[in-house]
Amino acid sequence: MLTLYIIRHGETEWNKAKRMQGRLDSDLTEKGRRDAKLLGERIKDIEFKRMISSPSKRTLHTAQLVRGTRQIPVETDERLMEIDLGDWQGRVESEIRDLYPAAFDAYWNRPESYESAGGESFYDVANRVASFLEDLQKTSLEGSVLIITHAVAVKALYMLCRNAAVERIWDPPFIHGTSLTILQIDQDKKEFLLEGCMAHCE
């Protein structure tokens, strides 16, 4: 049986400013660093066979804080990266809403019809996350694996494991920074044991 501990990176400066990051990056805030350390303390007794992170700076920093003193390498996989938001990247949400009103509305309310200006669709993200999950199941048959990724990638994972349509990608739970999701995989059976949990910050 394979158990995936899936976390979103900690809060960043751009998260705080409501500035879209996508493939761009910004530093973790003090809260983001603190929450990652708290999560690391929460799961310190779990023996992970692998740690796999998106190669973005914010996920790698989060991974290092959560790893603590463990002597385990952090692998990277580009399929775990955040959705490429093209021309939106680096802009604040209010600016995007003014410049791209139809696409902004589709992004949040009709994700199945969202088309990015120079970036990815939600279908693109789902396809690469599905590819990652398929390969992971071939290379890690059992044990616990820690995955450090981004909000839309986590949402795509929920959608895929529930056989849901892209229209449902924003269904609850909300994925806060450092939230923990636990997914158990037993051959073809996938079961969420925990969803978007923030108990380490309470």
From TrEMBL:
Please indicate which superkingdom the organism of origin belongs to.
Bacteria
- Keyword Hydrolase in the entry? The reply is yes
EC nos:
3.1.3.-
Keyword Lyase in the entry? The reply is no
Which UniProt key words apply to this protein?
Glycolysis, Hydrolase, Isomerase
Q: Which GO terms describe its molecular function?
A: hydrolase activity
Alphabetical list of InterPro entries matching this protein: His_Pase_superF_clade-1, His_PPase_superfam, PG/BPGM_mutase_AS, PGM_Phosphatase
- This chain's protein is named Histidine phosphatase family protein
